[in-house]
Structures are given as structure tokens and as C-alpha cells.
Write a structure and sequence with these properties.
TIM Barrel; alpha/beta; about 45% helix; five-stranded parallel β-sheet
């Protein structure tokens, strides 16, 4: 299928490249991976062309800015990354756009940086890599707390989506993973932490304050669709600390969008689609952590009406990001 749009697709600055090394196999694969993630030109375009992807929204790798404990340095790194990304996507505005990297260590600075990126560069929103460390390495700030309401107000005002992307838990804060480091990152911990963060947002009254916020999560919903019914069912008995005015599931259905990034499983897709509905499902790859061909061939060969496929791979994204595509 041609004309697909993908938007959990990563690039890297040289200075954030090392963040990815632990996730990539042996040294021969690392050589290829480096070339793929650093490139925002011919190599990426060739992969897109081969696999029927017309347009990509590019974001910085994980955790990058979210792991910079010095706030001033986090602000500087965001600006450097966003300036460079803007320069690169401007060469091919017909094929690329950007998501802003944000210094969440300082909510006002993050709001200002997002505003700059949207207004000056036409960026389509932000992609943030989970919780933020700040001041000391052993820290983790989630964005449901009151300090971030002003930030969310600005996201809502700009009317751009916020992609909540995974990161690895910090070893000192992950006692439950002890002895099983393989559990901490993409096989499980990424989803566990991103789902937790999403539920915290739902349970904090954030979407009562800003009902138009649009949060995107990848990897087919990080496990939430599978568990959504039970969350509300059990909350009847233990709602302690929940400050949302509506059922949690209602926020999830009204404020979240789900992508297929890195989860090319048809049963999982069917579950997510059944729970959230076709208007909330969108195609993505997770390049170069995933192989574009795996994502595209799986999606393209799925048994589904072509008109439904077109929504998921293209028209939902055009609408969500107000893209100037037909
Ligand atoms: C991702 O960007 O989603 C990612 C990583 C590292 C490993 C796996 C993965 O950043 O999916
Ligand atoms: Zn990703």
C-alpha cells in the first residue's frame, strides 16, 4: 500500500547516539543502525520508498533530553536538536516533518520550546521520552503533577499532539527488576512505565482541565487496551486517590491515539482496534529500532477493507496533524 504516514520514527544527534547502543544487537548491526539513525536523507527516503511510506514525522531518540539532569543543559540540548531537525526536514518538506524534543525538567521552558518549534518550524507536536530526571540521576518526574498544568495548557492551546514515548527505568529505581535486566527495557519495562504514565495522566484530572489534549502512545497502546475494562471495573472498589471526574476509560477513549509501532501482531491489533475504534488507530514503524519492511508488509497484508487501511495508515494522521496532504 502506498501513501502511508509514519511518526514514531527516530533520528539521533551524535551526542545522543550512545543512548541507543544498549538496545542494538552486535557490532555489525550497530554499524548499520548508526547510519540509519543519523541519516535524514537518502537512506531513510529509500526505506520509505521501498515500503510505501510517503511521509514521516521524525523525533529524537530515547531517552536523550529526558535523561539530562542539569536543566540548563537539557534546555540547550533540546534547542540544538530541534534546530538541526528543522534544518534537515526543511530540505524535504514534502516527505518529512518534526516532533519537538522538550526540556521537561522546566515546564515553562518546555512550553516555550514547543511553541517555538510549532510556530517557527511547523513541527507537528512533541515527542517526549517518558519521565524526566532532574538535578540528580536518581529521580523521575511524571507529568500528572500540578507543576505541569501550565505546560499542558499551552499544548492544548497550540492544539498539537503529544507523543508519550518509552524510556528505560533507572536501575536504582527498579528494584522489582533486580536480577532480570532484560525485563527493564523494550521487552516489558518500556510498556509498563509508559502505560503507568498514561494512567497517571488519566487519573489526575488533567483531561477535565484540558479536554482537547491529544496524547499518542505507541506499541499498540502499551498494553492498556487489553486491560482497560478491568481498570474501571476494579476502580469501583478501590478508587483511592483517583481525581478524574469521569471513568478512566472515557479519558482513554477520548484523549488517546494508538500506533502500531514495534508491535506487528494481528491479534494485538484486533484487540486495540476493537477497544479504541478505527479513528484512534494509526500506522507507525519505530525505525530504525524496527525494520520498516516488517512493519509495512505486516500491515499491508492484513485482511481488512482497503478503506479502513487507508484511515489507519494515512487519513487519520492527516487529520490529527493537519497535514497538507490529500
Ligand atoms: C524505541 O524508540 O521505541 C526503542 C528504543 C530502544 C529500543 C527499542 C525501541 O528507543 O523500540
Ligand atoms: Zn520509538
Amino acid at each position: 500500500m502506498n501513501g502511508k504516514i509514519a511518526f514514531e520514527e527516530h533520528w539521533s544527534l551524535l551526542e545522543t547516539l550512545e543512548d541507543a547502543r544498549g538496545f542494538v544487537g552486535g557490532s555489525s548491526h550497530w554499524d548499520t543502525f548508526q547510519r540509519q539513525i543519523l541519516d535524514l536523507g537518502d537512506l531513510r527516503l529509500a526505506e520509505m520508498d521501498k515500503n510505501g511510506i510517503e511521509f514521516t514525522i521524525v523525533s529524537l531518540n530515547s531517552p536523550a533530553v529526558q535523561a539530562v539532569v542539569d536543566t540548563k543543559k537539557a534546555i540547550e540540548l533540546s534547542k540544538r536538536a530541534n534546530d538541526k531537525l528543522a534544518e534537515l526536514v526543511a530540505k524535504r518538506p514534502d516527505r518529512f516533518a518534526g516532533f519537538a524534543a522538550l526540556p521537561m525538567q522546566d515546564p515553562d521552558a518546555a512550553a516555550a520550546e514547543l511553541t517555538r518549534c510549532v510556530k517557527d518550524f511547523g513541527f507537528k507536536g512533541a515527542l517526549v521520552n517518558g519521565f524526566t530526571q532532574k538535578d540528580v540521576p536518581d529521580s523521575g518526574i511524571y507529568y500528572d503533577i500540578p507543576e505541569y498544568r501550565g505546560f499542558w495548557g499551552q499544548v492544548s492551546k497550540l492544539d498539537v499532539p503529544f507523543y508519550l514515548h518509552p524510556r528505560s527505568q533507572i536501575k536504582s529505581r527498579a528494584v522489582e527488576y533486580e536480577g532480570h535486566p532484560w525485563l527493564m527495557s523494550s521487552p516489558w519495562g518500556f510498556a509498563a512505565d509508559t502505560a503507568l504514565h498514561s494512567l497517571r495522566l488519566c487519573g489526575s484530572g488533567l483531561f477535565d482541565d484540558y479536554p482537547k489534549l491529544k496524547i499518542i502512545i505507541g506499541h499498540m497502546g502499551e498494553g492498556i487496551p487489553y486491560n482497560l475494562w478491568r481498570i474501571d471495573a476494579r476502580m469501583r472498589f478501590s478508587p483511592r486517590g483517583y481525581t478524574g471526574k469521569r471513568y478512566l476509560g472515557e479519558y482513554f477513549l477520548d484523549n488517546f491515539y494508538i500506533t502500531t509501532s514495534g508491535n506487528f501482531s494481528t491479534p494485538t491489533f484486533q484487540c486495540a482496534l476493537t477497544v479504541v475504534g478505527i479513528d484512534r488507530m494509526l500506522f507507525s514503524v519505530d525505525y530504525p529500532f524496527e525494520d520498516t519492511r516488517d512493519a509495512a508488509s505486516w500491515f499491508d497484508s492484513m485482511q481488512m477493507a482497503e478503506s479502513d487501511k487507508l484511515k489507519i495508515a494515512r487519513s487519520n494522521a492527516i487529520k490529527l496533524f493537519k497535514l497538507n496532504l490529500k
